[in-house]
């Protein structure tokens, strides 16, 4: 998948501790941001892009093609990336920001909303900063890479709703009508009592890079190889499959037991190339997860699926394929088509509607936090080669250290 | 309205040979609806203004008015297709206090009800959307009044009966036969607590066909007398069923069903139009 590439986009921002400061602000402060010109009907929604790498540039074009949007500012850790993005989207030179503080400086300017396509470990901080600055937020998955990040993101979501700001997490399957219908039916009982399920997420991995990676800029540029920046691929990529799976069962697992490792992956980095995790949900409902980044020989480049077996039927869903329910209450469903693009486009269109309607209930936040936590639970279990309970994970609040020392402030 | 417009004698019993009586009653019903409409929301209809038709259906008055359709953002079990918005219905209508029973199906259609589980006081199930429409047509011919399926908006307004939460008239277990308390079987209609307007089984028991084609998006703006999209692939069904979880039985929960499907958990109730 495209968002698996190393070209993730560096980015900005100060210390992570900033988030906890935001969390302490007064609750229930219903405060609408000043109505800027850009949010009025018939005028453009002015956007800032945070993260000008491969996916940032790709999705910026989709914004321009699918809504009343105009990019007026951009930020990326690497000046060359910010400059290239700025040229492509006609952003004035004085609104192209770089280094770790670039996003903060971007947020000081006049903007209606930001699009966050930075490396995942920065998402909670960028989201919280943006909400604090009174901006609507469109953010790529995953929403964080560790438990403190998830909690900070959840808090940013709460703050956004209190302030009348839209915070939309760009999960493509959740924007798809076939997936929505299938999820609703399963939650409503159309396949009866859930017995067990399976989810898998297979894709190719990054190619070998055999150079010294002690330079933090090297690592930031190739964040997809490093577990503390990406969350490992179970969080960064397989969150698609585990989000689909947890959507159907609609609750958090009690525990996970896992294994994994790094056997085929060559070159720099510390991400695993395979995970095998068994999740246990309430009532002994089991979910078997398998994820690989072993070979690029996958048909179509990747395969992402979630399937549940119930007492009256089963639901079978592929991210890039058919979605259906078979059994006593069948659902014909259909093919998702090019969900990778179409899901993003659906979310982009929704975002404009939500911003204009000031519909700030932000229903994508809680499920995104939950499914990201599910990936973290599986990762912890696999790293430890043992069972880890949800409670244990939430109590430990393990923080991953991205090793930012040496980067330009 | 109930006291002023419909005195005790207004609950008209309509017999098979009593079309004149029905029409006479109807004048008062319509007058009441018009008056209720002028009064605005809060001038609720309900069981006191009910009539009973030739096959024993009690039909409860729902006056014209406004309500909030869809669910609140934080409602437990909410789905994306329940976008909350204000709907205004400009015409009052009468709606069955119960789901159509197998006894009533047989009385109107002259054949045994199609569902697998038999029982004259059980809701008729195993009927496709067109079967339900056909029942309404036959009942209309029989009585000289216009019966039809409720629109989705009419159904939800009747279900809510002025309430705004997930369930109307009580907690899920008090008002709905759902998979958690039904034994996965239909129950005789009217066995659980009714809502504020005297309607039973709006939540649970049989899922109920509505007239509309299903569209995932409900309007965000106020709409007047909405009747769904002009075309579609699935019809709306409401209220959950004895096979479904309680969340599917919420006032705002919507189901899309291929109209030709004849599920053993899907039935309907009728609306009788004001002439």
Properties at a glance:
heterodimer; A: 409 residues; alpha/beta; Rossmann fold; Dihydrodipicolinate Reductase, domain 2; 2 domains; six-stranded parallel β-sheet; 14 helices; 15 strands; disordered N terminus; B: 275 residues; alpha+beta; five-stranded antiparallel β-sheet; four-stranded mixed β-sheet; 12 strands; 22% helix
Q: Gap between N and C termini of chain A, in Å?
A: 31 Å
- What is the string of helix and strand elements of chain A? HEHEHEHEHEHEHEHHHHEEEEEEEHHEH
SS strand fraction of chain B: 15-25%
**Helical percent range of chain A?**
25-40%
Determine Rg of chain A (CA atoms, Å): 20 Å
Write down the CATH topology of the largest domain in chain A: Dihydrodipicolinate Reductase, domain 2
Q: Gyration radius of chain B, to the nearest Å?
A: 17 Å
Distance between the termini of chain B: 19 Å
The general outline of chain A is globular
- Give average pLDDT of chain B, whole number: 85
Please give the number of β-strands of chain B.
12
Which ranges of chain B are low-confidence, i.e. pLDDT below 50, for 5 or more consecutive residues? 1-44
Uncertain ranges of chain A: 1-40
Q: Main beta sheet of chain B, described?
A: 5 strands, antiparallel
